Amino acid sequence: MSIERIVLAFAGAMILVTLLLAHYHASEWLYFTAFIGVNLLQSAFTGFCPLAKILRAVGARSGTAFS
């Protein structure tokens, strides 16, 4: 699995988890959901993604979006 697919899968999973936590526990989890969305948006324009850098450091293969 390439870095891009891992990043997208992780972001999608975290958004779903934080939405469930906000629904069943505390609405403050929506701030983390917003943070994930902002991070995805800025990485689309800048090409910088912290998770992609971590995955590259541990040896995951890169596709073309985060090279």
Chain-wise SSE layout:
Elements: H1 3-24, H2 29-46, H3 50-57
Helix pairs in contact: 1-2
For the terminal residues, how far apart are their CA atoms?
15 Å
How would you characterize the largest beta sheet?
A: none
Taken as a percent bin, the fraction of beta residues is under 5%
Low-confidence stretches: none
Please report the number of helical segments.
3
The tally of domains stands at 1
Please give the radius of gyration in angstroms: 13 Å
Quickly give the structural class: mainly alpha
Order of helices and strands: HHH
What is the percent of helical residues?
over 70%
Q: Specify the overall morphology.
A: elongated
- Tell me the number of strands: 0
What is the residue-mean pLDDT, rounded to a whole number?
92
Tell me about this structure.
With 67 residues, this protein is mainly alpha-helical. It has one domain (3-57). It is built from 3 helices and no strands. It has helices spanning 3-24, 29-46, 50-57. The longest helix is centred in the N-terminal third of the chain and has 22 residues, at 3-24. The two termini are 15 Å apart. The model has no long low-confidence stretch (mean pLDDT 92).
